[in-house]
Amino acid sequence: MTPEDAISTAKEEAKDGDVHAIELDFDDRDEAWQYEVKIIDGTTEFDVEIDAETGDVVDVEKDSTDDKEKAVDLKDPMAFDEALKLAQEKASGRLDGWKLDSDDDRIEYQFDFDDDDEEIEVSVDVESKKVSVDD
After folding, report:
1. Is residue 123 part of a domain?
2. Taking every annotated instance into account, which residue ranges of this chain make up the domain PepSY (predicted)?
3. Is the pTM higher than 0.70?
4. Per the domain annotation, does 72 fall within a domain?
5. DSSP string covering 40-104
6. Is 70 inside any structural domain?
7. pLDDT, tens digit only, all 135 positions of the chain
8. Residue 73: CB partners within 8 Å, gap ≥ 6?
9. Is residue 69 in a domain?
10. Residues paired with 102 in a beta bridge
11. How far apart (Å, rounded) are the C-alpha atoms in residues 61 and 47?
């Protein structure tokens, strides 16, 4: 399942709204790779968890919000592949997960790498292309 597929599935659950975050991570409880997509429609926030292999919706949480963060887009202003390439220039190892989200009026990709049991987190700002490493 691609990130675009996960977004489409989440939008079917939420019926309307803008994507404000997408994350791919291994869920220890379910022992499966899952996408979590956050969609905001006005004052309603939907968190939709989707099994990354089967495409099945695992969980949907609905809550009220006053979040005014920007919507995110997997292609604009920076595509996932470009962000991953920039991150891989700063860190090596196995990619353990990633997310794209909006926080404090900044949109950034965050990549989690495992390099011989050393956790390395790399953030890429989609507008400035600034890369920062937190290990």
Report:
1. yes
2. 2-61, 79-131
3. yes
4. no
5. EETTEEEEEEEETTT--EEEEEEEE----PPP--SSSSS-HHHHHHHHHTT--SEEEEEEEEEET
6. no
7. 999 999 999 999 999 899 999 999 999 999 999 999 999 999 999 999 999 999 999 999 999 999 888 899 999 999 999 999 999 999 999 999 999 999 888 999 999 999 998 999 999 999 999 999 996
8. 19
9. no
10. 107
11. 5
